Hints:
Elements: H1 3-40, H2 48-65, H3 69-87, E1 101-105, H4 110-121, E2 125-129, E3 138-139, H5 142-148, E4 151-154, H6 161-170, E5 176-179, H7 188-196, E6 202-206, E7 219-224, H8 228-236, E8 244-249, H9 253-277, H10 282-286, H11 291-304, H12 308-316, H13 321-340, H14 345-357
Parallel strand pairs: 1-2, 1-4, 2-3, 4-5, 7-8
Antiparallel strand pairs: 6-7
Helix pairs in contact: 1-3, 2-3, 9-11, 9-13, 13-14
Amino acid sequence: MNKEEIDSIRNKIRAVDEKILALVAERLKEAEAIGRLKRDNSAPLRDYTVEAQVLEHAEDVCSRLGVDRQIGRDVAKILINAAVSVQSYSDIRVYRGTSKKIFIVGGNGKMGRWFSSFFNIQGHDVSVNDVTGDSPYRSEGIEEGAANADVVLLSTPISVTPSLLSRVMSTGTQALVLDSCSLKSPIVSLLRRGAAEGMKVASIHPMFGPGARTLADQHLIVCDCGSAAAADEATSLFSDTCLSISRLEVESHDELMGYLLGMTHAANIMLFNALAYGGRNYAELSRFASTTFTKQMQTTFDVAVENPSLYYEIQNLNSHRERVFSLLEKSLADLRRASFSADSSDFILLMERGREFFRGYGQ
C-alpha cells in the first residue's frame, strides 16, 4: 500500500469523523430541546430508567453491527453526560406517584448533597439535617425529621455515625433507617439491635463518590441487617437506575472493604509517598512517562486529593486492617526477594499469580 492510498483512507476516516461529530451536535440540540420541555413542565433533569435503556440500546445496536458491545456502552455514557450538561438547571422538586419523605442527616456534605439531588430528581420530598452549610432543601431537627420521614438516611462520617444512628433509633421512628458508611463494624451491633426490635433498618454503601455523573457501571451494596423487608425497600429506592446492586449480610461488608478500599487506598498512598521520597516531582517524571506510569498516576492522583479524614477512618476503623497490611507486607517482601534473586523463577511465579487472579477479566 503506497502513501497515496493511505492518505485516501485517512481522508475517508476524517470525513466519517465529521459526520459522527455532526450527529453528536444534532443529538445535543435535541437533548437541549428536551431540557427546555422538562423545565417548562417542572420535570426532573435525570431519568435514570431512560439512561439504562439508552445504554442497553447502544449495546444492542453494536451487536447487530458486529461491533464490540462495550464500545456502544462507552459512547452512550459520553453522550448521556453531554446531554445532562446541556440540560442542566437548578433542581426542581417534582412529586409524583409514590414519592417518599426522605430525611438526610449530613445532607450538606458532599455525598449528602449527592443523595439529596438524586432523591429529589426521583420525585421524593427531601429534607436535611447538618451542622454546617446551607442547603436548597428544607432543614429539620433530627427528632422532627425522623418522626416525619418515610426514609431516614445517615450520610455522615464513620466516627460520628454510631451516636447519630442511636439518636435516630431512640426516636422510635417508623421510617426505613439507612446509613451509607464506608465501614459497618462500628455500627453493626446497633443495626442488628434495631432490626431485632422490629425497626426497618438496613445499610447501603455506594461504591462511587459524589462526582459520579452517570450511574452506568457503578455499584451499590445493600446490607441486610436482620430485616429482609428493609433491605428490599432500600434496594427499591435505586432499582430503576442502571446501578449494579448487590446484597450482603452486614457482617461480610468490612472484610470486602479491606480489599476494595483499604488495600487499594494503601497501595496508592504507598506509591505516591515512595515517589515523593524519591525527590523528583510529578511534572519532571511525567515528561518521560510510560503508558503504565500515566495510567497508574491517574488513579494515584485521585487518591492523593481525596478527603484525608475519610481515608484515615477507612484504614483506622476497619477491623480487618491487620490482615490487609500483612498481605501488603508479604507481597512487598515477595517482590523484593524475587527482584533481587539471580534466578527469575520466583519473579515469573509472581506474574503468573497475577494472571491467574485476573483469569476471565475482560471476557
